[in-house]
């Protein structure tokens, strides 16, 4: 379901049989090296989309990608704001692992996000050297684009990265294949991570209380197959403990 930043075994073989999976592995390795952090990739997908549809759906940091100096853009990368903010924060040396709220990116943050866009293009096509430039008015692409889509988790921040290319990896047909039936998926709710000293850990016993900084009505994180997917709050339903989903994390 996911690949860590340290996993890059069999990337070329994966590309030949599963382009989306090969791209996921290559990007995880490149992003992990770029950010010096654990980057988890989930739900890779590959499809074809009309260029206009892709550009209209861009909502985060959108970049035009060029394969040479002064060359016309051959690819475009869109990174959702929470993920783009987490990437910029990491490159600026921030030591934050909590979920970052969505907000518009500053010019500096947009320029830093370009490095992740370049890594994405390089992972999909390592035969050329890519350069990204932030753009607010993407366009000029062919009518039909190959779109590689990844869910990316960095610390407690998650988001979607989409890479659209003019002439890229082959797709069987003009639409993604229907997903195979899946079995039960683990759903886990966590409050927060915190540290205790060795001395405290050694003296713990039944009945002890571990206090956290989380308010009693604060948010909890809902993970789907280990991936942060929603934020929520604790509640009660028909006499049972329940979780109310308050927002999506990506």
Structure description:
The protein is of the alpha+beta class and about 250 residues long. Helices cover about 25% and strands about 30% of the residues. The chain contains 6 helices and 11 strands. The chain has helices spanning about 10-15, 20-35, 50-55, 80-90, 105-125, 200-205; strands at about 1-5, 40-50, 60-65, 75-80, 130-135, 145-155, 155-165, 185-190, 220-225, 225-235, 240-250. Helix 1 packs antiparallel against helix 2 (about 20-35), helix 2 (about 20-35) crosses helix 5 and helix 4 (about 80-90) packs across helix 5 (about 105-125). The protein starts with a strand and ends with a strand.
Helicity, as a percent range: 25-40%
Please count the helical segments.
Answer: 6
Termini Cα gap: 17 Å
- Strand residue content: 25-35%
Order of SSEs: EHHEHEEHHEEEEHEEE
Determine Rg (CA atoms, Å): 20 Å
| Number of beta strands | 11
Oligomer: single chain
The overall pLDDT, averaged over residues, is: 76
Largest sheet: 7 strands, antiparallel
Low-confidence stretches: 1-16, 170-182
Which structural category fits the helices and strands?
Answer: alpha+beta
**Widest beta sheet: strand line-up:** 1-2-6-7-4-3-5
Shape: elongated
Topology:
Layout: E1 2-3, H1 11-17, H2 19-35, E2 39-50, H3 51-57, E3 61-66, E4 75-79, H4 81-91, H5 107-124, E5 131-134, E6 144-154, E7 157-165, E8 187-190, H6 198-203, E9 220-224, E10 227-237, E11 240-248
Antiparallel strand pairs: 1-2, 2-6, 3-4, 3-5, 4-7, 6-7, 8-9, 9-10, 10-11
């Amino acid at each position: 379901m996911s690949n860590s930043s340290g996993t890059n075994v069999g990337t070329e073989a994966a590309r030949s049989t599963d382009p989306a999976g090969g791209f996921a592995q290559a990007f995880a390795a490149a992003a992990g090296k770029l950010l010096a952090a654990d980057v988890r990739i989930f739900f890779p997908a590959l499809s074809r989309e009309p260029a206009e549809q892709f550009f209209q759906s861009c909502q985060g940091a959108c970049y035009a990608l060029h394969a040479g100096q002064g060359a016309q853009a051959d690819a475009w990368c869109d990174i959702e704001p929470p993920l783009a903010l987490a990437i910029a924060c990491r490159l600026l040396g921030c030591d934050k692992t909590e979920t970052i709220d969505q907000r518009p990116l500053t010019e500096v943050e947009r320029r830093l996000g370009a490095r992740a866009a370049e890594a994405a293009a390089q992972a999909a096509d390592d035969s050329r050297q890519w350069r990204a430039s932030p753009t607010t008015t993407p366009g000029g692409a062919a009518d039909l684009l190959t779109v590689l889509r990844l869910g990316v988790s960095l610390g407690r921040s998650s988001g979607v990265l989409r890479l659209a290319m003019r002439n890229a990896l082959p797709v069987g047909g003009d639409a993604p294949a229907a997903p195979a039936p899946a079995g039960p998926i683990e759903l886990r709710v966590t409050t927060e991570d915190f540290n205790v000293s060795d001395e405290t850990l050694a003296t713990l016993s039944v009945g002890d209380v571990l206090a956290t900084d989380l308010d009693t009505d604060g948010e909890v994180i809902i993970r789907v197959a280990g991936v942060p997917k929603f934020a929520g709050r604790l509640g009660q339903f028909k006499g049972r403990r329940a979780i109310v989903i308050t927002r999506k994390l990506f």
